[in-house]
């Protein structure tokens, strides 16, 4: 029997005999989407994990998984699959069966056991064992875990927005902890994996239970930025619970609602008494702390006082990046996480976007900048003599050309990766607000053509930009908006903001903190099907991505590329790089920038991130060291660039040269030399090949300059790198063509021959990509007449196309 026949004849009857109803058996249960992998056709999902059957006590409450094998196959052959599915789904019970045998994998027993059993356990039996394993088998535990999920939220296609498998695990672990009476609960979920959905569903289940006898529980949702409060309130909780039950605290204490949202800063206000003290300590039953790794992690922070005031409440901390330092420890307050879902898991499951990394180093960062005795800066300030390096740039030493070279690189990159003329949305992280302003100016000037078409092509969005910056951010967040394209910031956008349309993260800010690094990279990890975003790029000017090599980071990049640029910032060379052997610089940057310090008592709509982490006694010291010197006229150019490529294990990285990178990608096209040459000869198929190579980060038309062979045609470089065929210069090709195929040219009428001869000159100057009808739309062809008139010289458009392709074929064969 086939597996399907085995399931129909034996597995399903065995489950029904144990009391499982059809509604409790979910066949072909899709666990994830399958890892996204860049291919010549952009991105494809790998095979998803699909369990044969998932057993649910109530809807969306899996408690067991079944892997079925065909009748003649040993049931033990399905044990490893069943174990894998159970681990993903956070389950303690998995079963492998062939219709004759049933093997149970039980992680709830001590020690865990694999045993053969006579029958499947009944729903009540398995439910009781499931609850006992979570230590939530009390009456309230049963009620909380069995409470239904809420499905009011809708996807863009108007289907119900259902929680993903790991979100259900997070909710179940959280409710089990609440049922056990645990007062402080920590959830760690990677950026972009839906912490707000977990919070919503947890609250929905609590609201539908008798957790608080006689009334619905009162919930306080806390954070330190308006966006982190307003987005959950407006996009998640209001659609589910309505305006009568949802309220944002501001100015006065309001009562009679079920779900409250508040900023720490707002709760600390008050003329006579702080606002949070005007609520009784036991007023709230549940406090949800979003981004709990920040201010509230410090023992002596002002924000910690808010949590301690409401200590009778159950408190849930949400974060992607918990911290554990002497002065701030998320675990010390909330305890060990009840559930963790990492960036690596999100990428592997296909729920998060994988990424590529380009490490770009500028010469002044590599060599340092040496000042001379008595040298004065642009504003006539005398500069202390010495060598200034990356740690000093933008904080102490400002080199205007350094920012301009980086800006030119970014604009060139956006132009080279544009799709249908649209540049990918990009965030540029700078050292401080002043640096962000200069970077905005440099990008504005480098993108003159783009700015002319879209006046808000590049904008600065920092805490200093106030309501106007907030309006620009709202527009930048939209996936269907063409501007702004580039948002330049310092710290404001590095955490908690949902930006699914962002395709590029530019690091021009030194980052030594692993939590900050993870949060910053997380701005690009969200997928955006509406614009076809399946991956994103990181451009690193400051070696921040060395943190990828630290054991504390998860989720490796697809590859890293190191670029070399000229003094104008244009790319000259691209070399893939491996992280192997790179030392990780985890030195903390003690100097907090003066632009990032809060004014006394300052709050507002765009709160300064991390302001509570600055000790007031340190402010004067920091300000006293904030003297900057600005110089110009410095020769700045790109020193180099490297690429990382994922190894075959799908996790580690290895260094490959640009030649090796191109070699591997060309061989993936599965074309023999003759096949590559023949496809390259025809304009239409050549364009397809160029697009396929571009999808693998190979710009075919730039290969001559990248390989240092400007006189060689791209196709000859491809043939040489992939199969070792000898290089032939364009001049030599043209000479051989004229010697071997003169009769081909002379077969055409003089006017048609004139067109072909001019195309040969274009080939000699710029290469074979010029051999296409579109080239006839530029000079000198426009001097001969419009393209339709030129086509008449050949007897029509089709004969003209055929003549150009035949010219190209003969030219490429003349070797």
Helix and strand arrangement:
Blueprint: H1 3-17, E1 25-30, E2 36-39, E3 42-45, E4 50-56, E5 62-68, H2 79-88, E6 93-97, E7 102-106, E8 113-117, H3 123-133, H4 139-146, H5 165-179, E9 184-189, H6 195-207, E10 219-223, H7 226-241, E11 246-248, E12 259-263, H8 264-267, E13 286-290, H9 302-309, E14 314-319, H10 330-334, E15 339-341, H11 343-349, E16 355-362, H12 363-367, E17 369-370, E18 387-388, E19 397-399, H13 400-416, E20 425-430, H14 433-446, H15 448-453, E21 458-460, H16 466-476, E22 486-489, E23 502-508, H17 514-521, E24 536-540, E25 560-565, E26 571-577, H18 616-624, E27 629-631, E28 638-646, E29 653-655, H19 658-668, H20 673-681, H21 683-695, H22 703-706, H23 714-723, H24 730-740, H25 742-746, H26 750-766, H27 781-784, H28 787-792, H29 797-813
Parallel strand pairs: 5-6, 9-14, 9-15, 10-12, 10-13, 11-12, 13-14, 16-24, 19-27, 20-22, 20-23, 21-22, 23-24
Antiparallel strand pairs: 1-4, 2-3, 4-5, 6-7, 7-8, 16-28, 17-18, 25-26, 25-28, 28-29
Helix pairs in contact: 4-5, 5-6, 13-14, 19-23, 20-29, 24-29
Pfam family, one: ResIII
Organism: Parafrankia soli
InterPro entries: EcoEI_R_C_dom, Helicase/UvrB_N, Helicase_ATP-bd, Helicase_C-like, Helicase_Restrict-Modif_Enz, P-loop_NTPase
């Amino acid at each position: 029997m086939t597996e399907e026949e085995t399931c129909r004849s034996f597995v399903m009857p065995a489950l029904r005999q144990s009391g499982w109803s059809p509604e409790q058996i979910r066949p072909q249960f899709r666990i994830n989407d399958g890892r996204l992998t860049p291919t010549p056709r952009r991105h494809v999902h790998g095979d998803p994990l699909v369990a044969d059957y998932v057993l649910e006590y109530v809807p969306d409450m899996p408690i067991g998984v079944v892997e079925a094998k065909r009748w003649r196959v040993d049931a033990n052959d399905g044990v490893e699959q069943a174990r894998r599915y159970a681990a993903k789904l956070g389950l303690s019970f998995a079963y492998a069966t062939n219709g004759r045998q049933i093997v149970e994998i039980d992680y709830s027993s001590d020690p865990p056991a694999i045993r053969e059993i006579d029958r499947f356990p009944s729903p009540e039996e398995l439910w009781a064992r499931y609850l006992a394993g979570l230590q939530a088998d009390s009456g309230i535990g049963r009620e909380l875990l069995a409470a239904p999920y809420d499905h009011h939220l809708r996807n863009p296609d108007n289907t119900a927005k259902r929680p993903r498998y790991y979100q259900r695990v997070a909710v179940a672990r959280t409710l089990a902890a609440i049922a056990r009476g645990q007062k402080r609960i920590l959830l760690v979920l990677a950026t972009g994996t839906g912490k707000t959905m977990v919070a919503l569903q947890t609250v929905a289940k609590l609201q539908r239970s008798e957790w608080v006898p006689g009334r619905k529980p009162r919930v306080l949702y806390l954070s330190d930025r308006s966006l982190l409060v307003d987005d959950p309130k407006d996009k998640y909780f209001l659609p589910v619970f309505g305006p009568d039950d949802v309220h944002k605290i501001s100015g006065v204490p309001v009562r009679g609602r079920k779900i409250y949202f508040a900023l720490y800063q707002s709760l600390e206000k008050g003329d006579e008494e702080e606002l949070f003290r005007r609520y009784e300590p036991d007023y709230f039953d549940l406090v949800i702390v979003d981004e709990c790794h920040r201010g509230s992690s410090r023992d002596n922070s002002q924000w910690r006082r808010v949590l301690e005031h409401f200590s009778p409440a159950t408190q849930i901390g949400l974060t992607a990046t918990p911290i554990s330092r002497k002065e701030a420890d998320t675990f010390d307050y909330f305890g060990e996480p009840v559930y963790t879902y990492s960036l690596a898991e999100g990428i592997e499951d296909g729920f998060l976007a994988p990424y590529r990394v380009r490490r770009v180093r500028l010469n002044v960062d590599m060599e340092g900048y040496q000042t001379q005795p008595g040298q004065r800066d642009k504003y006539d300030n005398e500069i202390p003599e010495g060598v200034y390096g990356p740690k000093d740039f933008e904080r102490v030493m400002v080199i205007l050309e350094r920012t301009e070279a980086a800006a030119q690189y970014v604009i060139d990159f956006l132009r080279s990766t544009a799709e249908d003329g649209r540049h990918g949305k990009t965030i540029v992280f700078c050292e401080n607000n002043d640096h962000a302003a200069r970077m905005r100016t440099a990008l504005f000037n480098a993108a003159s053509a783009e700015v002319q078409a879209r006046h808000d092509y590049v904008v600065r969005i920092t805490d200093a930009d106030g309501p106007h910056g907030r309006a620009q951010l709202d527009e930048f967040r939209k996936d269907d908006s063409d501007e702004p394209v580039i948002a330049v910031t310092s710290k404001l956008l590095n955490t908690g903001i949902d930006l699914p349309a962002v395709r590029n993260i530019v690091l021009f800010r030194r980052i030594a903190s692993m939590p900050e690094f993870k949060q910053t990279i997380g701005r690009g990890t969200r997928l955006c099907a509406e614009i076809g975003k399946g991956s994103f790029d990181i451009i690193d000017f400051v070696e921040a991505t060395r943190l990828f090599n630290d054991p504390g980071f998860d989720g490796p990049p697809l590859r890293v590329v190191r670029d070399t640029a000229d003094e104008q910032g244009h790319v000259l060379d691209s070399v893939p790089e491996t992280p192997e052997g790179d030392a990780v610089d985890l030195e903390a940057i003690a100097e907090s920038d003066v632009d990032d310090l809060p004014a006394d008592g300052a709050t507002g709509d765009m709160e300064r991130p991390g302001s509570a982490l600055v000790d007031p006694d340190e402010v004067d010291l920091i300000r006293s060291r904030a003297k900057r010197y600005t110089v110009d006229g410095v020769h700045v150019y790109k020193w180099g660039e490297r690429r990382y490529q994922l190894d075959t294990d799908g996790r580690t990285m290895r260094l490959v040269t640009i030649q090796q990178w191109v070699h591997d990608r060309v061989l993936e096209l599965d074309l023999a030399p003759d096949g590559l040459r023949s496809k390259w000869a025809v304009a239409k198929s050549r364009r397809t090949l160029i697009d396929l190579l571009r999808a693998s980060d190979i710009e075919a038309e730039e290969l001559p300059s990248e390989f240092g062979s400007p006189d060689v045609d791209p196709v000859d470089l491809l043939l040489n790198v992939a199969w070792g065929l000898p290089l032939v210069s364009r001049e030599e090709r043209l000479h051989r063509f004229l010697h071997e195929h003169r009769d081909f040219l002379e077969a055409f009428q003089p006017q048609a021959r004139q067109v072909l001869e001019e195309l040969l000159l274009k080939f000699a100057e710029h290469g074979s990509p010029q051999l296409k009808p579109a080239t006839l739309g530029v000079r000198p062809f426009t001097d001969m007449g419009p393209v339709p008139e030129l086509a008449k010289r050949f007897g029509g458009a089709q004969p003209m196309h055929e003549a150009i392709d035949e010219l190209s074929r003969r030219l490429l064969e003349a070797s």
